[in-house]
Amino acid sequence: MVAACAGALLFSACGGTGSAAGGQSEGGEPVAGGVARVLQTGEPRNLDPASLSNTWAHQPVLGNALYGTLMINNLENFDLEYKMATGFSTTDGGATFTLTLQPGLKFTDGTPLDSAAVKFNWDRLRDPALGSTTIRQAVQIASSEVIDPTTLKVTMVAPNPHFGQSLVAGALNWIASPSALQKGQAAFDANPVGAGPFTLVEWVRQDKIELQKNPGYWDAPKPYLEGLTIKTVSDSNQRVNTIMTGGADLSSETNWASLNKVEAAGYPTEVVPTGGGQFVAMNFRRAPFDDERARRAIGLAVDLDAINTIVYNGEGVVPKTLFEESSPYYADIPLPTPNSEEAQKLFDALAAEGKPVSFTFLSYPTTESKTLAEGLQAQLSAFDNVEAKVEVVDFAVATARAGARDFDMIISSAVVQDPDFGLWTAFHGASPGNFVGINDPELSAALDAGRNAESVEERKVAYETVQRRLVELNPGLWYVRAVPSVTASKSLNGIDLYTLGSPLPEELWTTK
């Protein structure tokens, strides 16, 4: 099933017993009541939406539960579908947009969720001091103007007709009460005020987050559940075992082997097919990877199929090209393959110049990340004039270090649905999400061309240049296709995903 989903790149979403577009048990009527137990992979720093990430590998259920969504994208055709918003349109090729809202929306503190509240949230997300990953999207907005309580005019720094796909993928989609945010972080964490389907009961750090149904939710009779219990479990095997032993109802999943195990046991899964993937990023800003030869040597030295074996039991999909052949943007431009002899020549040449390759892999605390780092370290130990160290830190530290660009090597991603957001964000010279520090004029120009082109044919030409330059620049090792996904108990229904594996908790219901 997982391999088949990967082949459906860019056109559909598929899963075990349901579809990401419609959810499990589509023929049944939702039943009210019950509490769903949810596993997420990363503990939040705090409950400010600016600190949460709307991807399968972070806190999507929590953000959607507390703050609801302005809009989502349909994973079958990537059309925008509206929730608290009623429209997000442009008439000038993405130079400006008009956001319209449902009338009468209110936060749980009784204050209005209006266009002024959206403006407040979007303006603050541009502040680097927040350390929000959504700054990548927020800084594309030059300014916004409140037209009336339900209308906001948005002016972009540069035209981007595909900006809606970027908006749904981050905290721009989650609006919190301005008055509550202004009370400070401690007060907000004790009482995070949104307009989502659930409200906070209790957050016991490093243990659990208890949520209860919001009786004033705008889209009644949703949510169907009475509550959610969210726990952070960073280990994939533990998440799988918890689902299969009845200890959880919904779990984000990051591991191909774990998904196959759950699927084989007859449990529901939902997978969002994507292009691009996860890559081991090398920091262009400092030695040793400010020298392209060092990056190329690592790419030639590491056998990614062997990495796949130790990390995913051989069940992951190692990208051979940036896009799958089923994508309209596919080009036969192969990603680097191992050549140990050429790698050693490069390591020796750098050492002869007094620049032996020595670096530290900054690892997240997950089993996947640690195994990947140690596997890469073990492979490189067979070469002369290269030293790889591993430093394991928690999610908050890793996120902060990545944001500060304080790393030599780290896991990153450029996961592609519509190609603009993932690739422009990760690799454009002007993007704050460009963690590796690429600043290549030809690459940036091609990314701009792909963003602004009006036809698939024009975009294909632009993204062919993007693919070629990425291979030539070697920003990292593309070690696995990402697997934005969830697993579920057999009693959970209504699973509905958008963007990169983000479930809508208001749609969930249980037959327990």
Automatic annotation (TrEMBL):
GO molecular-function term, one example from the UniProt record: peptide transmembrane transporter activity
Keyword Signal assigned: yes
Signal peptide range: 1-20
One GO BP: peptide transport
Lineage: Bacteria, Bacillati, Actinomycetota, Actinomycetes, Mycobacteriales
Gene Ontology, cellular component aspect: ATP-binding cassette (ABC) transporter complex; periplasmic space
Family: Belongs to the bacterial solute-binding protein 5 family.
Solute-binding protein family domain residues: 81-431
Keyword set, alphabetical order: Signal, Transport
Organism: Rhodococcus oxybenzonivorans
Entry protein name: ABC transporter substrate-binding protein
Superkingdom in the source lineage: Bacteria
Pfam families: SBP_bac_5
